[in-house]
Each structure stands twice: as structure tokens, then as C-alpha cells.
Amino acid sequence: MQEKSKLISRLFVLLVRLSVQSTFAMPGGRLAEKQIDDALDYLTKHYGEVGLERIVDYCVCQVRQISEYGADYLPKWKLPHSFGIKALTRFVTRKPGQKYYEDRWLANFNLTREDLLREIEDRSVHPLFRFIYPDYEDSTKRRALSTEVGYYICGVSTLLWTPFSSVCRSCVKSKACKVRTQKLYPEIYRLRVAEFKGKEVQNG
User: Fold this and answer.
1) Are residues 154 and 98 in the same domain?
2) What pLDDT sits at residue 144?
3) Is the CB of residue 55 less than 8 Å from the CB of residue 14?
4) Domain boundary among 95, 121, 147
5) Which of 184, 136, 128, 144 is nearest to 164 (CA)?
6) Are residues 44 and 68 both part of a single domain?
7) Which of 57, 88, 121 is the last residue of a domain?
8) Which residue segment(s) compose the domain that 143 sits in?
9) What long-range pairs does 46-51 form, CB within 8 A, spacing at least 24?
10) Helix axes 174-184, 148-157, angle to 10 degrees
11) Which range is the signal sequence, renumbered to this chain (predicted)?
């Protein structure tokens, strides 16, 4: 399965779970993978290049179509309904004004295209990705946990709050520390929250 096909699949599942049915799972197997690869090849031939923004646009277009039918439609849904030639044609021929309605639909779930783009960006090359959960900091965070002294130690010796740390989650200072982290390290905070939210959705 192509790497971009994996991104399409991942985002498609996320969107369906957030907007239609929280237990949705993408069909597996080699035929399913080929269907998505073929769809990506079609889009590549049509546009010349399929960037992350195009992947977001495609998934939004197709999942919005599903949502109009509601959760009762999902048992009848098949992969070609969203990745077959009719679905592909629907996407490449849609009018520019359709984005407005898609954005309004996303807003119903407190989402934007920028949010979705962050979900599939290549975090492996983000310079701050390694700081999403520096687990080596937990030993420091355990010192004087839930005290003013411990809060001070964290401030001078760690990158503060991360939702992945069980130590942070158990600390009574976590709420204040979360605000402090957002203020001092806004990009690290954004990455941590986005990654943790993605893990929660994947785990259903």
C-alpha cells in the first residue's frame, strides 16, 4: 500500500468516526488496499501531484457524502462507493463553491481543514516530534509530585505537561501545568494534544 494511500485511509476512518459512527473500521485485505492505491493513481494522473491538502479535500468530500445518508447507510456502504470511479469523478468535477458547504459541515464537528491537515502531517520529520512524550522526564516529575516544590522542579527541569504521561495525569497541578505548557511551548503543546487526540480516536 502506498504511503499516501495509508494517509487517505487513516484520515477517512477518522472523519467517519467523528461524523457518522464512532466504531467504523475500514475494510482490510489486499483488494481494499489496491482499491485505495488505484484511487490515488487516478487522482495523481488528474492533478499531476496529490499533496496533503488534496488528501484532506478528497476525504472531506467523500465522508460528507456518507454523512448525508447517516449511520444506517454504513452497513450497505462498500469501498468503491467512496474510492471507485463514480466517487472519483464526483470529486474532480465538483464546483469550487462546494468547499463552502463542506467547511460548514466540518464546523458541525468543531473541525477545520487545517485540523485535518495536522492529523496527517509527517510528524516523523517535525523537529519537535521527539518532545511529544519524553518519557525520561517522568522520573523528575515524580519528585515531590503534586506539590509546589514539584511544580517548580518541573518548570526548570522538564518540558512540562504531556497527556501521554501517567505522572502528569495523576498530578493535582496538571490543569495549571497544561495552561503553562501552552503558554511557554505552544507548538509542542499543539503537537501533543493533536497526537493524543488521534490516538484516542484510533483506539475507539
Assistant:
1) no
2) 94
3) no
4) 121
5) 136
6) yes
7) 121
8) 129-202
9) 46/92, 50/4
10) 20
11) 1-25
Cβ atoms of residues 65 and 84 within 8 Å: no
DSSP state of 22: T
Q: Which residues contact 169 (CB under 8 A, 6 or more apart)?
A: 163
Q: Return the pLDDT at 1.
A: 59
112 with 14, same domain: the answer is: yes
Question: What is the residue-level pLDDT of the chain in tens, covering all 204 positions?
Answer: 578 888 899 899 989 998 888 888 888 888 989 999 999 999 999 998 888 899 999 999 999 999 988 888 888 999 999 999 999 999 999 998 999 999 999 999 888 998 888 778 765 556 677 788 999 999 999 999 999 999 999 999 999 999 999 999 999 999 999 999 999 999 889 888 888 876 654 555
Residue found by looking up cell 497544561 in the block: 178
Count, residues in the chain: 204
pLDDT at 124: 54
Dihedral angle of Cα 58, 61, 37, 51, to the nearest 10 degrees:
0
Q: Are residues 83 and 39 in the same domain?
A: yes
Q: One-letter amino acid identity for 64?
A: R
DSSP structural state of residue 127: T
Work out how many domains the chain is built from and give that number: 2
Residues 6+ apart with CB under 8 A from 130: none
